[in-house]
Design goal:
CATH superfamily: P-loop containing nucleotide triphosphate hydrolases
Number of helices: 3
Number of domains: 1
Helix content: 10-25%
Strand order of the largest sheet: 1-7-6-2-5-4-3
CATH architecture: 3-Layer(aba) Sandwich
Distance between the termini: 13 Å
Largest sheet: 7 strands, mixed
Structural class: alpha/beta
Bound molecules: adenosine-5'-triphosphate, magnesium ion
Order of helices and strands: EHEHEEHEEE
Length: 145
């Protein structure tokens, strides 16, 4: 699936629509350069689950957990940023793999270091800029494993 976005708000709205498809245990890997809009996409997913106001970049925290909010059947959202890790070992030493593919939905920025993602359903979201199309243009490509 390919979607074109002309603004951060449009990316949030699209991600929120996409999130309706997500189920417990799903993993979403977010690909794309620094500042392309991966965290913005996470905000859209969190919005669908009613906890968008909490979303911020976990670059310094390595993982944020959002929700579940008021409703009992809401899912926790695990938002990872693996940018600062140098190898897969460090990620396991930090204990992050305990959350992946578990009782919630996992969204992973800079996901490339982990070789095997432990989930039945893994989505790859790739966000690209195109300088010819202007500053706020993004192409969002979604594939399901
Ligand atoms: N169409 C668009 N979709 C998403 N973000 C956009 C768009 N147009 C402009 N932006 C801006 O691009 C920036 C994206 O920042 P964001 O923190 O989401 O990037 P990131 O991919 O998470 O970067 P990092 O790798 O540093 O975590 C925001 O400032 C956002 O407002
Ligand atoms: Mg980010």
């Amino acid at each position: 699936m390919i979607k074109e976005s002309g603004s951060a708000n449009e990316t949030v709205a699209f991600a929120s629509e996409f999130a309706a498809e997500l189920k417990k245990g799903d993993i979403v890997r977010l690909h794309g350069e620094i500042g392309v809009g991966k965290t913005v996409f996470v905000r859209g997913v969190a919005e669908h689950f009613g906890c968008a106001e909490d979303v911020c970049s976990p670059t310094f925290a390595i993982m944020n957990i959002y929700g579940p909010s008021q409703t009992e059947d809401a899912l926790p959202i695990y938002h990872f940023d693996l940018y600062r890790f140098e190898n897969e070992e460090e990620i396991y030493d930090a204990g992050l793999d305990e959350f992946l593919g578990g009782d919630g939905i996992s969204l992973v920025e800079w996901p490339e270091l982990i070789k095997n993602y432990p989930a039945e359903r893994v989505f790859d979201v790739t966000i690209e800029k195109d300088s010819a199309m202007g500053e706020s243009y993004r192409r969002i490509i979604i594939d399901k494993r």
